[in-house]
Structures are given as C-alpha cells and as structure tokens.
C-alpha cells in the first residue's frame, strides 16, 4: 500500500477543519492556535501562499479580510513550524449569501 510522506501525516490526530460561513461584505477573521515554541507561521488559501492586500491583513496568527467576496471562499491553512515539528490548521471558508440573514 502506498504510504504518505511523513510530513503529510498529522501526529496521530484527524485533520480538523473549522468551517466558516460569511456573508459577502462582512469581515472574515481567522485565528490560528499556536504552540509556545512556534518559530514561523504561513497562511495558505487553496494551497497558495496568502499575501496581504488592501482587503487582507495578516498579523502572525490572525488573518482578517475586509468586505468578503465569494472569491475569498476556499480552504485556508495556517502552517506553523517549531522545533517539535509543524502543525497545520485548516479553515473551510464559504462566502455566500445563500442563507437568509436573520429577519
């Protein structure tokens, strides 16, 4: 049977995905839980490095997107590296007004 490269295996834990439903125009805030010895933090969306823009602010363990649009939807990942290994936290983001807002 094929085996995963070691980095692809979470340490004995199932991959957790936090789901967010955001209405267009609302802010999106993601926060990564950090271990004490974290040395670097990388944010990805759909596997691509997330970069700051006039709407997207990255401050270490937090990402904030102002005025969300459907194009902001995707699978976000926070990848942290530390001497004891790397961790990835996933956030499934769906920017949609499919659900009625409270009336």
From TrEMBL:
Keyword DNA-binding: no
SUPFAM superfamilies given in the database record: Immunoglobulin
Residue ranges of domain Ig-like in the record: 2-96
InterPro entries assigned: Ig-like_dom, Ig-like_dom_sf, Ig-like_fold, Ig_sub, Ig_sub2, Immunoglobulin_dom
One Pfam family from the record: ig
Translocase found in the keyword field: no
Cleaved signal peptide residues: none
Lineage top rank: taxon: Eukaryota
Keywords tagged on the record: Immunoglobulin domain, Receptor
Protein name listed in UniProt: Fibroblast growth factor receptor 1
Highest classification ranks of the organism: Eukaryota, Metazoa, Chordata, Craniata, Vertebrata
